[in-house]
Amino acid sequence: MLSIVIPVHNEETILPQLVEGIVNGLAESPHDFELILSENGSIDQTLSLARELAQQHPQLVVLTNPEAGYGKAIKAGILQSKGDYVVIFNADLWDLNFLHTAVKLLAQYDIVIASKRHQESLDQRPLNRRLITLTFNLLLHVMFGFKGSDTHGMKAFRRVPLVPVVRACITNREIFDTEVILRAQRAGLTTVEVPTVVEETRPSRYSPFVRIPRTLKDLGRLYRDLNWSSHATSSALDTTPDKIQP
């Protein structure tokens, strides 16, 4: 059983193509799957459109939260998922080839990450976006001892060991992906990175002048929590069955 979780915020223009592309693309898949759209704070017709699509596709599950929050939306989707494996896509960044590759690798690893900075990846984003990614990852290496090349973008994981990690997360915005990977790494979960192709299909929702200050604020909060609250984090990462059920 696969669970595909996609946070959606003001995506009315691409939502039908997104859903049809994934559902049709997995029509011949040997795996049962659910597609979870985790709507958050949309002010367009995203939610009503998602509900209409759910009437057409039984695999579609629609979650909603009136407050916009990228990390909160992903967290809700993961905790509501039923699959043995969970795949995280973005509305403008998804690839079924990655999904098929990840499913095979999850027989050996807990987490599979499509890294933009993998030596075989093709990152076609503007130079400033690539430099931001490079700087951000250097910061993760210095502050958290991160062992890897990327934390954002497409990823897949085994649900059982990841759910207690997700429950322990304290951030709700853009660095939620990063927090999950950092906590998973500290919990001893195994990770493998694979190459990907990235092309910017639309401008970032937030300018760097908005995103960078709040990212640094969230990183500071995460640094304090991971380094000063290790006992609380260890307790939250208990993997007994009663702790991992949504």
Describe the protein.
The protein contains 10 helices and 9 strands. The protein has helices at 15-25, 46-56, 70-80, 96-105, 127-144, 159-168, 176-186, 208-228, 230-236, 241-244; strands at 2-8, 33-40, 60-65, 85-88, 111-114, 122-123, 155-158, 191-194, 197-198. The strands form 2 sheets. It has a 7-stranded mixed β-sheet, sandwiched between helices. It has a two-stranded parallel sheet with strand order 6-9. β2, α2 (46-56) and β3 form a beta-alpha-beta unit. The longest helix has 21 residues, at 208-228. Residues 231-246 have low confidence and may be disordered.
Per-chain topology:
Blueprint (H helix, E strand, L loop, with lengths): L1 E7 L6 H11 L7 E8 L5 H11 L3 E6 L4 H11 L4 E4 L7 H10 L5 E4 L7 E2 L3 H18 L10 E4 H10 L7 H11 L4 E4 L2 E2 L9 H21 L1 H7 L4 H4 L2
Radius of gyration: 17 Å
N-to-C series of helices and strands: EHEHEHEHEEHEHHEEHHH
How many structural domains does the protein architecture include? 1
- CATH architecture identity: Alpha-Beta Complex
Structural class comes to: alpha/beta
* Oligomer state of the chains in this structure: single chain
Low-confidence stretches: 231-246
The whole-number mean of residue pLDDT values reads 89
CATH topology: Spore Coat Polysaccharide Biosynthesis Protein SpsA, Chain A
Tell me the strand percentage band.
Answer: 15-25%
Given the C-alpha coordinates, what overall shape results? globular
What is the class in the CATH system? Alpha Beta
Distance between the termini: 16 Å
Strand ordering within the main sheet: 3-2-1-4-7-5-8
What do we call the CATH homologous superfamily?
Spore Coat Polysaccharide Biosynthesis Protein SpsA, Chain A
Number of distinct helices: 10
What helical percentage do the residues reach? 40-55%
Q: How is the biggest beta sheet arranged? A: 7 strands, mixed
Number of strands: 9
